[in-house]
């Protein structure tokens, strides 16, 4: 039986939830910001990245995952993240905060540079276990999200949808959005079939997302 977020209700037993909690309770450190591929750090045993449209709530979600208020800077200004920002959790996990796409309050030439950086990173990072693609639950998949999905399909990079801001959507509308996302994923070769529904403000889905990432560190 599947839950509304498209995952198996029994996919995350208590021990998996606890493993996720312990993983994100580790000491973390900011490793570096990368503006060019030649600045990438050495590959970690497990690397996961977070991508999404500008202002999708990526910084808030990363802060909720780690239980910190300042792991990633939150801002009402879209396009604030302009580099690949690497954070390490001991020698177990490297988390990557990717630049937002779809809108950026910057020159077009700089936006193109960010886009090229994202493409090159996705195509040339064998340690990357999964990209978590954040989608605003109020709007569902946009054209720019579909373009990002196509890029990851082409690069054969495993990715998984994470719906954000679910607390701002009425239940019936959220159910409709979830059904549309589930249908779209059926046609995507590199997409994980399950997805997460989250709210950084309410804490919804945070423990399950932590558990998902903890499982990736064991593979």
TrEMBL record:
GO terms for molecular function: GTP binding; metal ion binding. GO terms for cellular component: cytosol. SUPFAM superfamilies: P-loop containing nucleoside triphosphate hydrolases. Keywords: Cell cycle, Cell division, GTP-binding, Magnesium, Metal-binding, Nucleotide-binding, Septation. Gene3D superfamilies: P-loop containing nucleotide triphosphate hydrolases (3.40.50.300). Its cofactor is Mg(2+). InterPro entries: G_ENGB_dom, GTP-bd, GTP-bd_ribosome_bio_YsxC, P-loop_NTPase. Residues 44-219 form the EngB-type G domain. Transmembrane segments: none annotated. It comes from the Bacteria. One of its GO terms (biological process) is division septum assembly. Belongs to the TRAFAC class TrmE-Era-EngA-EngB-Septin-like GTPase superfamily. EngB GTPase family. Necessary for normal cell division and for the maintenance of normal septation. This is Probable GTP-binding protein EngB. It comes from Kaustia mangrovi.
């Amino acid at each position: 039986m599947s839950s509304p977020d498209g995952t198996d209700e029994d996919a995350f037993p208590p021990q998996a939830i606890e493993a996720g909690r312990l993983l994100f309770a580790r000491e973390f450190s900011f490793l570096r910001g990368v503006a060019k591929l030649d600045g990438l750090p050495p590959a970690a045993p497990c690397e996961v990245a977070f991508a999404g449209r500008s202002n999708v709530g990526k910084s808030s979600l990363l802060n909720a995952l780690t239980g910190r208020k300042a792991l990633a800077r939150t801002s009402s200004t879209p396009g604030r993240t302009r580099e690949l920002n690497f954070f390490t959790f001991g020698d177990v996990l490297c988390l990557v905060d990717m630049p937002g796409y779809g809108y950026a309050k910057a020159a077009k030439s700089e936006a193109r540079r960010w886009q090229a950086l994202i493409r090159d990173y996705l195509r040339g990072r064998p340690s990357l276990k999964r990209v978590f693609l954040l989608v605003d639950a109020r709007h569902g998949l946009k054209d720019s999200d579909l373009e990002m999905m196509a890029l990851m399909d082409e690069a054969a990079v495993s990715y998984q949808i994470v719906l954000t801001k679910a607390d701002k959507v009425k239940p019936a509308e959220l159910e409709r959005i979830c059904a549309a996302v589930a249908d779209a994923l059926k046609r995507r070769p590199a997409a994980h079939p399950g997805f997460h529904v989250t709210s950084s403000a309410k804490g919804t889905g945070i423990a399950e997302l932590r558990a998902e990432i903890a499982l990736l560190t064991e593979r």
